[in-house]
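Kindly inspect this one:
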Amino acid sequence: MGPENDTLISEFLLLGISKEPELQPLIFGIFLSMYLITVLGNLLIILAVSSDSHLHTPMYFFLSNLSLVDICFTSTTIPKMLWNTQTQSKAITFKGCITQMYFFLLFAGLDDFLLAVMAYDRYVAICHPLHYMVIMNPQLCGLLVLVSWITSALHSLLESLMVLQLSFCTDLEIPHFFCELKEVVQLASSETFLNKMVMYFIAVLLGVVPLAGVIYSYSKIVSSIRAIPSAQGKYKAFSICASHLWVVSLFYGTGIGVYLSSAAAQSSHSSAAASVLYTVVTPMLNPFIYSLRNKDIKRALKTFFVMVGTKQTSISR
């Protein structure tokens, strides 16, 4: 970022989801509730996996990483939005906006990669059950997560550094509740062709490649399930990947829906409202999908709370 930027811009204005003042208390209450549910639900998943040795498997290792990323993902945008709503302020500093953008892109990319990695894990579990623990060894699991982090970090760093090279003069209102990359680039007074080319190319690359991996994995899974002779065997195999399939459908369904709505929406506020599905609702629902359909998670949580209750009873005595 050149010296010109430092003198011409110090902050952006986040216009939020609605301009109506009477709706602000309702919006604050809804977003606060969803944020608390998201954090609590995903923390419970992490606690369940870490406290039960039976859940120290590749599938639950990836699940706990996904829960951690979802907590960080929502924490990147919602607390600032809640603070602005409560203080009736719309400002976010330029440095704060770039920082928020970086971490938003980082954790959104991690969500994308981890869901693809989890699809591969389910593919190995169902299509190669006898070699599952050999293929999905701790070294490979750690490497897959590490590569996901590095790739996402490099992507978000590239996008953020390119925004830092832009000049901004006037009309710094962002019709969103967070610093969304496309909205920020559109506010630039300098040439943004390269930014847009890189932004759309990476969006397609990071969207299509993991999704293609998910589709390929599940096509093989479906073929393997169909080859199982017994109905009980088919049901057991399908139940292994049912929760993940729901989460994948929710993630990509809302993501594609938000993209299409933003392309067709007459106002940016409509796009901002639609993005709530992707940025808030999906991370909030993931713990419910995994815990409600997973006996191992429910058993681990029950054991954890019984253990906590027993310790508290012993201390009180």
Q: What stands out?
A: The longest helix spans residues 94-127. DSSP finds eleven helices and three strands in the chain.
